[in-house]
Amino acid sequence: MKFLFIYLPYLSFGIFLLGTLYRFWRWAKTPVPLRIVVPPAPQSRLGVVWRLIGDIFWFPNLFHADKLLWAGGFSFHIFLWLVILRHFRYFLYPVPGWVAAIQTLGLYAGYLIPLPLAFLLARRLVIDRALYISILGDYFALVLLLAIAVSGILLKVFFRTYIVDVKALLLGLIHFQPFLADAHWLFALHFLLVMVLLIYFPFGKLMHSGGLVLSPTRNQRANFAQRFVNPWDFPVSYNALNLSRPEKYAQTLAAASEGKKE
Amino acid sequence: MDRRCHPAKEKDMLKIDLPKERLADWKEAMLQKMAEVLNKYRSVRLFLDICVKCGACADKCQFFLGTADPKNMPVARADLFRKVYKRYFTLGGKVWGRANEAEELDEAVLRDWYTYFYQCSECRRCSVFCPYGIDTAEITMAAREIMAAAGVATKYVTEVVAKVYDAGNNLGIWPPAWKDNCAFLEEDLKDTEGLDIKFPVDAVGAEILLVPPSADNFVNTNTMIGYAKMFHAAGISWTTSTYCNEGGNFGLFLNYANLKKANNRILEAARQLKVKKIYWGE
């Protein structure tokens, strides 16, 4: 119990924070040598910001790629945003107005979220191409998220836990004054699964959430009028076997008669 | 069906600073180059990590649509690289191994790399549809760079690149032939259309250096005639160069060093001819 409600939360959050920062740092310190931007590429910085906002919230190019997949992915992500925002009521005291306002929307999003998750899982089993490319990490993430969603729904609808104790527990953790509270086993499961997700987060494909912003094909401008310098560029070298070299050309030009009238 | 390209010739590999044949310790050489590429290209590192295997790219690749070969799906093509990356460069890959798509780099994997990374035309259609803009072309470029470092490349690409450093263009049109072609087009235009339009070659001090695809001088001659007519009508002084008359950079299909070297030729030609602008492309 102590492990579950005191040590593991700090451990999992620590791994999540440090792991995510490490992954970001690793990507950020790797240079971008070539300005390869995928069309339709924006010309201005504002255009890039707008493009990235679109990519984060409504993925327009996925819409053009596969409408059914877009529907599943988009609905899952929107419901997830709403669910997470609704959960802020458990982490903040006093509860801000916007969190109180978003409760109903968040609840319905939570009830609906297993639908797109089930669809995404089913397509990885039923569609040939998706089955071919899917790996353990894909199934694990989907099953974990489904388990979190279902346990959450069961908690809310059937197995009502004493919420004051749960909030006290969470606030205790946040303010570094942890204490053990008596909570329903289903809450403990829900909490445990979330912590497993936090631990898994920096290691797998879930990093796509932040990594998208660093994607060089999406976050660069198409301002080719300006020279782009490769940070690790190196000078060309001539091979002894190369027949036509600059010096020889200079000789050719010197001997040529064409263009001399200029 | 065997869709592998003819392998590179020794003489060509030597001309472009690559090992003349597959190295004995090709595996170590490839892994070393992979580590280097992963530290030099954010795109490669990120795209390997970020792919969520949604498969939106799958039916966007014309090579997959044409061959119905699952490894030609952009995601599967990138997976050929990703599985080696996971095995040697990630914690998860070392822990989970084949259960989570991590494979040893062996003959079979190299065979697949050679087969499929030379079936990508680097057109980037897949990345238009990918939610993260994952560019399989950049993965392909990285894979070819890694293979080349170990002495594995195709005849098509290496022969052409080596030719550029000998003749100045992909097709092996030597300077006298280029001059002759241009002279022929001048004559031909005079005979057929009665126009007195020049095709200057190596004219020092012209305003514009034209670097067309060499095929325009060899077979798409109507395009070459078009350039001349356009410059003539605009009254702009122009020239082509026998040192560099290739707009199609095949170094892009091999590795960074050759991409740069082929591009550099254009700059070198422009400097020596003392032109103001370069018109180049394909």
Explain how this protein is built:
The complex is a heterodimer of chains A (262) and B (282). Chain A has 262 residues and is an all-alpha fold. Chain A has one domain (2-255): Transmembrane di-heme cytochromes, Chain C (Fumarate Reductase Cytochrome B subunit), CATH 1.20.950. Helix content of chain A is 63%, strand content 0%. Chain A is built from 13 helices and no strands. Chain A has helices spanning 2-29, 45-57, 60-65, 67-86, 97-101, 103-112, 114-126, 128-133, 136-157, 163-174, 185-200, 208-211, 246-255. Chain A is elongated. Chain B has 282 residues and is mainly alpha-helical. Chain B has two domains: 19-152, Fumarate Reductase Iron-sulfur Protein, Chain B, domain 2; 161-280, no CATH class. Chain B has helices at residues 10-15, 26-40, 42-50, 62-67, 74-89, 91-96, 107-117, 125-129, 136-149, 155-167, 175-193, 215-218, 221-234, 256-273, and strands at residues 208-211, 238-239, 277-280. Chain B has a three-stranded parallel beta sheet, covered by helices on one side. The longest helix of chain B is centred in the middle third of the chain and has 19 residues, at 175-193. The model of chain B has no long low-confidence stretch (mean pLDDT 94). At the A-B interface, helix 1, helix 3, helix 8, helix 9 and helix 13 of A face helix 2, helix 3, helix 5, helix 6 and helix 8 of B.
Say what the CATH topology of the largest domain in chain B is: Fumarate Reductase Iron-sulfur Protein, Chain B, domain 2
- What share of the residues of chain A lie within helices? 55-70%
Residues in helix, % of chain B:
55-70%
Outline type of chain A: elongated
Q: CATH H-level name of chain A... which superfamily?
A: Transmembrane di-heme cytochromes, Chain C
Examine the coordinates and then state which fold CATH places here, giving the name of the CATH topology of chain A.
Fumarate Reductase Cytochrome B subunit
Amino- and carboxy-terminal Cα gap of chain A: 90 Å
